[in-house]
Specification:
Layout: H1 10-31, H2 37-48, H3 52-61, H4 63-71, H5 80-101, H6 106-153, H7 159-166, H8 170-194, H9 197-212
Helix pairs in contact: 2-3, 2-5, 4-5, 4-6, 5-6, 6-7, 6-8, 7-8
Length: 213
Amino acid sequence: MTLRGKHSSDSGLHAEGDDALMRDLRRQARNSPMLTAHEEQRLLERSAVGDSASQERLVAANLGMVIRIAEARQDQGLSMPDLVQEGSLGLVEAIRGFAESGETDFAKFAMQKAGEQMDVAIAAEAAAVRDAQLLVAAADDYERTELTLGRELKRPPTERELAEKLEWTVERTRYVATVVADARRRHDEELLAFIDPDAIAELDDDEDEALDG
């Protein structure tokens, strides 16, 4: 049976896509005209009353600032495009809220909001990774216990037996069992996606010839 390594370069392709996207964003930032203080104030006033075109102009003019803040936070769990996206959300919040903020320096206010939004997203991603790691460890414990109990009992263990052995609640055991079952299903589907149908056909042909012989 021949397996295709279709997913072996996925991370490389993803990185290339991120690099291409960042090149495009940096180009947009370079090509966006600078704003005078008067223009910035006028756009902020219009944005405050819901003028989307003025808001977009302010976002474009401050894209370079968002990229610089993102660069200071790279390698902290989020890709550069994701950081820029989160920072842009913070920038929009700054644009909409500047008039009522009591602040007088929009650039400083925008940098603060963009950075805060990125930091929140980084923290959320880190928490999600920790949760995923804990779930993987729980799934490993579940599978080992399921195998051990099955051998001892000479039959598949019940949900309650597994819960008692693992010292978990039945609800937690049921949840982890669902995760394990889904992981097994996905593994089977990915394995099938790797399989070369031509190789299967060749094996079938060989078996038919052997039977005919």
